[in-house]
Amino acid sequence: MTLVRVKGFKIFADRHGRMRCYHRSTNQKIDLQKSPLGSAEFFADCAKISAAALALKQIQPKPGTLGGLIAVYFAEEHFLERSKATKREYRMCAAILEPIKDTPVSSIDTPLLAAIHDKLAKKHSWDKANRVRNFLIQVFKFCIPKGLISKNYAEDVIKKPRPKNTPEAYRTWTFEEVQTVLEAASPQLRAALAMIFCTGQDPSDALEFRKDQVDDAIIWKGRNKTNVGAAIPISSILEIELAMAPAHDAETLLASSKGTPWTYDGFASTWQRLRRKLEGGDKVAPGLTPKGLRHTMATWLREAGQDEREISDLLAQGSKVMGLHYSKNAALARKNRKTMQVWEGEYERRAAKAKLSNPQRKPSNPDKEIKSHE
């Protein structure tokens, strides 16, 4: 039998005497039944596997480079346990840095990062430049103890200030905008937006609320971003909204038009289509975001006289009161119910004011008009 050798491949007879062939670096197998050893098909398969392995090697981050540091961080438990939203954010930052991923670690210092920061601010925005800076702080923080970089050079890069003429990132919604958007939304999107509006939670948190997390009209959950314990009362307004949503078998309280849990990207895409439609028809002012509904609840509660601690407890902000694996805190639930009642009262006041200021206004869909708490 003619001995066949191909660089990068392991060719041998197994314990049963059958010939085997594997690519050494990828352990990819060649089926010698379909491509007999030494045949044209065999050498074609070898060439195809070698080319694919070479292409993969070329795009892999090189050790001792910025890309290598980022790859190390992405394998860290600290990153893997972050919320889905934070992971998306950090991967976006890594994609922005892709053109300079081969920068040697030995050349990384604060002046270099400051120059990159300036360039990103001009090419993208001040906000995106600051996000990349914050991402690099995390990357370097976890690479220093491993001896991969000597200092967290990103910490000394000065953040870009918000330009004076820049609109608020997550501006509050007016009562009329809330009504207009809810009336124009599909039933599934309306339920999702109402959940964010009536709980004051981040969209990524609200979309993941599960049915088994509801007990005695309280949603018990730790926030994705901070793991702060949350005890969120279901207001009568939200109860009505959820009752109007189409029935579904998903484990989550909310579901897409497919009857499956919302993905954040699916929700964001559906929301953007509605926002553009309403802005194009001059139905709402520019700048509405789902996260702005969280700010709206906080603003209404502040205007109603609630203090920061009361607002923080309801919105699951601030210090880690309980953590994700917490025991249910009845005192916190009672306190948040009182805060939610204040919010419902503020909702009723604004609803009445909207009707008085515009008595001729009729809802676009009377059957879907939000009812006030009685």
Structure described in brief:
With 374 residues, this protein is mainly alpha-helical. It has helices spanning 40-59, 66-74, 77-80, 84-96, 110-123, 126-143, 175-184, 187-199, 203-206, 236-244, 264-280, 290-303, 308-315, 330-357, and strands spanning 9-13, 19-23, 214-215, 218-222, 229-233. 48% of the residues lie in helices and 6% in strands.
Written account of the structure:
With 374 residues, this protein is mainly α. It has three domains: 9-59, no CATH class; 66-156, Tyrosine recombinase, N-terminal domain (DNA polymerase, domain 1), CATH 1.10.150; 175-368, hpI Integrase, Chain A, CATH 1.10.443. The protein is 48% helix and 6% strand. The chain has 14 helices and five strands. It has helices spanning 40-59, 66-74, 77-80, 84-96, 110-123, 126-143, 175-184, 187-199, 203-206, 236-244, 264-280, 290-303, 308-315, 330-357; strands spanning 9-13, 19-23, 214-215, 218-222, 229-233. The strands form two sheets. It has a three-stranded antiparallel beta sheet with strand order 3-4-5. Strand 4 and strand 5 (229-233) form a beta hairpin. Helix 7 packs antiparallel against helix 8. It is extended, with a radius of gyration of 28 Å. The N and C termini lie far apart (90 Å). The model is unreliable at 319-327 and 359-374 (pLDDT under 50).
